[in-house]
Amino acid sequence: MADAELQRVGDSCDILGEVPIWSITEQALYWIDVRGPLLRRRDFATGQVQSWQMPELVGCIALRTGKRGVIAGLRSAVVLFDPATGALERFPGPHAEQPQMRFNDGKCDRQGRFWVGSMDDVGRGPVGTLYRFEAGNFIPVIENIAIPNSLCWSPDGTTMYFADGIDPIIWRYAFDPASGALGERRQFARLPEGTGMPDGATVDADGYLWSAQYGGGLVTRFAPDGRVDRSISVPVTQPTSCAFGGADMATLFITSASQRLSPDALQRQPLAGALFALHTGTRGCPEAHYAG
């Protein structure tokens, strides 16, 4: 696909845009600016964009089943936030007293359990953990992570994908939908040298994984066997995440970052931090909502 098929959506510009998620009932896109720190929502009937200031850095969000609002991983806590009222319920994370730590990538599995990973936002050492959040409790599942990323599930929920953003590898785990337990880990895909690191990812209805390659200026579609099916250049070096949405669930929304770019780099890529849309011809899987 050519770059010309990408379109900018609106005129928002994020420091670190992340985690787009489409609401089918609202026909609206939610996403975040991690370092804003902001929760954003675009109504596609009106084009109106609303933004809510978060009390801390915000690493991820998921929508809630049957309720307005989101579950979000902030710096020190997982919270339930209702944009309509501003109500915010906090569940402090295990690292709440460590100011250098924060929550990063997070998503719901197909059963509506919320998964969220922590990281050292300063040293980037392998001290983070991927947790399953259930009934207000943080259950550690994978430890010794530097930058938790690429979290998503196959359409049938029997495979979980995950990456540590300091290595160019996306892993696949056997996944028990009933219990949420992980099985064997295998390498799913290795990104070629010079094409960035695996950041946010999503899976389409055919079971293909779409990966935003931070630092590489690419979004790649991987077949279920890990081979590259399609590679799409984007006009920014730091695409961060992607998700399907739109009336037909065939539009891929792509977030991006402007952080840590030099003045010269920003001049060369004036769209850094923008939100993009790509009409793929492929239907996506709706992201699961938090069932708690």
Concise overview:
2% of the residues lie in helices and 51% in strands. By secondary structure, it is mainly β. It has one domain: 6 Propeller (Neuraminidase).
Structure description:
This protein is an all-beta fold and 292 residues long. It has one domain (3-279): Neuraminidase (6 Propeller). It is 2% helix and 51% strand. It is built from 1 helix and 24 strands. It has one helix spanning 263-268, and strands at residues 6-8, 17-23, 28-33, 38-43, 49-53, 58-63, 70-74, 77-81, 88-92, 101-108, 114-120, 128-134, 137-145, 148-153, 159-164, 169-175, 182-190, 197-203, 209-214, 218-222, 228-233, 239-245, 251-256, 276-279.
What features would you highlight for this structure?
single chain; 292 residues; mainly beta; 4-stranded antiparallel β-sheet; 1 helix
Secondary structure layout plus pairing:
Elements lengths: L5 E3 L8 E7 L4 E6 L4 E6 L5 E5 L4 E6 L6 E5 L2 E5 L6 E5 L8 E8 L5 E7 L7 E7 L2 E9 L2 E6 L5 E6 L4 E7 L6 E9 L6 E7 L5 E6 L3 E5 L5 E6 L5 E7 L5 E6 L6 H6 L7 E4 L13
Antiparallel strand pairs: 1-24, 2-3, 3-4, 4-5, 6-7, 7-8, 8-9, 10-11, 11-12, 12-13, 14-15, 15-16, 16-17, 18-19, 19-20, 20-21, 22-23, 23-24
